[in-house]
Amino acid sequence: MTSTMAARATHAQSIPPSCVHDVYRSVNAWAARTGRPVARLDVGEPHFTPPLAVIEALAAAVRDGRTGYTPAEGLPVLRERLAAKLVEHNGHDTVAERVLVTPGASQGLSALMQSVTDPGDEILLPALHWPIHLQQSLLAGLRPRFYPLDDEYRPDLDALATMGNERTRVLLTNTPSNPTGCVYDADLQAALLELARRNDWLVIADEAYEDFVYSGRHVSMAALERDVPPAERRVFSVYSYSKSFAMTGYRLGYVATPNAAHAATLQVVQEASILSSPTPVQYAGLAALDAMSEVADNRERLRSARDALAPLAELGLIPRVPAGGWFALVDIDGLGTTADAFAAALLERDAVAVAPARGFALRPVITAGRVARVDADPASEHLVRIAFCGEPTQVSEAARRIAAFAAELAS
Ligand SMILES: Cc1ncc(COP(=O)(O)O)c(C=O)c1O
């Protein structure tokens, strides 16, 4: 009995690790082995820190003993404030009862997928996507399908229009996008919403980078259905404190559901998954909402960091300058190497860590409910993702080294 159980691979065992975590681990190991300081352009860890008020609110909550469980859906006072933020800032029509606090956007996304789908349903993911979206889909027992992107990394609407079938349940959108830096404008969002309506898909809109748009503005798809009766709405919006307030390790996010019925289902998933989000962190999140001016400062920091990538863009190495988010894709096509080899060599010779895009374009082949094999979209073989949220001087120095290495390869 024991040996049979040990021999049987579980569904989770068949799920590929996230490239972001893989690269992170291997760069840590390389740094420990060589003792060299590494320019970390592989992960989205900001160089700025949370507002002081956040730190003080967290400490005060711990000191005052405000450390017991909260309701699974979050502190009532925080949900009230988040609902007000969603109305004022994002143009939603919502109330606290439809907003759930989560330990990070990641957990909110995972819980949502479990809450609105059945195993075997299909989810539509962008061709280039954050690998955690894929893992979460697979963990929920979903079959991911991938919608193509155009030359600007925008969803290809014509292709998407042909993709639905009776098992397709969710369209996942991510703007500003990780890893492409693409920002979907209002027309595109309206077209996506219309497609979702026509096909009766739900939409999970990952808006973790909502506050980091450098050209244009962030449009929340849920705002486009604010005049639809709540019972007929289909957009779920997911937000994070990690990016806007540099609170990556605090683990705090929230989900705006379309109506009370969906909120009630998500609440059950959260009761089973988390019992509650960490209480002192929720008080820290409350304080953060009074420090919105720092978000604008953080955006300007990131804008400067993005602009420091101009030399790479001028060399044609970043053909699509990111309009938002924390990441850019470097295109090494024509340099006679692959993204994996480029990233490995860049680390070895210049101590610059980047993430080959292969891991953002995995294509699992699913047989009998298990991932039998994982391929990758060949179009990703010449792309590497760089994070430009690190220390600005380090980012521009790393960009200089990337440009020099590329020039060497080209000559
Ligand atoms: C697209 C996207 N969504 C969500 C997250 C994670 O947010 P959180 O830290 O709140 O879980 C990330 C983090 O990198 C991300 O890139």
Automatic annotation (TrEMBL):
EC number: 2.6.1.-
Entries under SUPFAM superfamilies matching the protein: PLP-dependent transferases
Cofactor entry: pyridoxal 5'-phosphate
One Gene Ontology MF term: transaminase activity
Enzyme type, top EC level: transferase
Classification via InterPro entries: Aminotransferase_I/II_large (IPR004839), AspAT/PAT-like (IPR050596), NHTrfase_class1_PyrdxlP-BS (IPR004838), PyrdxlP-dep_Trfase (IPR015424), PyrdxlP-dep_Trfase_major (IPR015421)
Record key words, sorted: Aminotransferase, Pyridoxal phosphate, Transferase
The protein's name in its UniProt record: Aminotransferase
Pfam family, one: Aminotran_1_2
Top-level taxonomic group: Bacteria
Limits of the Aminotransferase class I/classII large domain: 38-402
